[in-house]
Design brief:
Length: 216
């Protein structure tokens, strides 16, 4: 009995210490936890994942290509570039995540600043790294391309996004903390339709639930 109590006390102490360390590394914010893909595995930096909207990916959806996914597309009439992030039918296009401070295991965690790069080749001069910018045609801030990987600070403030836990799923947020003197206008990353029928990804009032599916 005494041995059982000692074992329980030791386990409790270790768990408490881990929580304290986590709180110290992320003061004033939610505790980070590993992001999981649809197979229950950790999402890792440098690996390819499809971003799949939850509302269109029911549990019974097992055939390849069903549902919708995030991808790049030209949404400006008579202009092929730059490409913006949209929701399309099928899996969409794979993305890679690069956190501001990679951990030794390469695991992506929630509430952490990261870059998102769409892993496709395009004919545009802009990079395929996500970047938030104001769109004059819609009057909203949309996720477009032309960002850069790394170099956290004032000049790259629009390139950083976060993955948040949302019930059993996830959502995306723009609220970078890579610049101590900056005061970015934070917002949820969701989906809305423009006048041409494009499902644009950008700042919305409500969170937009998503999941991460491996491309292999």
């Amino acid at each position: 009995m005494m041995r059982t109590l000692l074992s329980f006390a030791l386990l409790f102490a270790l768990c408490t210490q881990a929580l304290l360390i986590e709180a110290q590394t992320n003061p004033g914010g939610p505790i980070s936890q590993p992001v999981k893909d649809t197979s229950g595995n950790n999402v890792r930096a440098g690996a390819d994942y499809f971003i799949r909207p939850v509302s269109t990916v029911p549990v019974i959806c097992r055939r390849p290509g069903c549902g919708t996914g995030f991808a790049l597309a030209s949404t400006t009439p008579n202009k092929a570039c730059p490409l913006n992030v949209v929701v399309v039918g099928g899996n969409g296009q794979p993305v890679k995540f690069t956190p501001v401070s990679p951990n030794k295991d390469g695991v992506i965690t929630t509430s952490t600043d990261l870059n998102v790069r769409v892993d496709v080749k395009t004919n545009c001069t802009e990079s395929t790294v996500w970047r938030l910018q104001s769109d004059t045609s819609t009057g909203k801030r949309i996720v477009t391309t032309g960002g850069v990987i790394g170099n956290p600070g004032k000049n790259t403030i629009s390139n950083w996004f976060k993955i948040l836990k949302d019930d059993n799923d996830y959502s995306l947020q723009f609220c970078p903390t890579v610049c101590n003197t900056c005061r970015p206008a934070c917002g949820n990353i969701g989906v809305f339709q423009d006048s041409n029928g494009n499902a644009l990804v950008g700042i919305t009032d409500q969170p937009f639930k998503i999941r991460f599916q491996t491309s292999s």
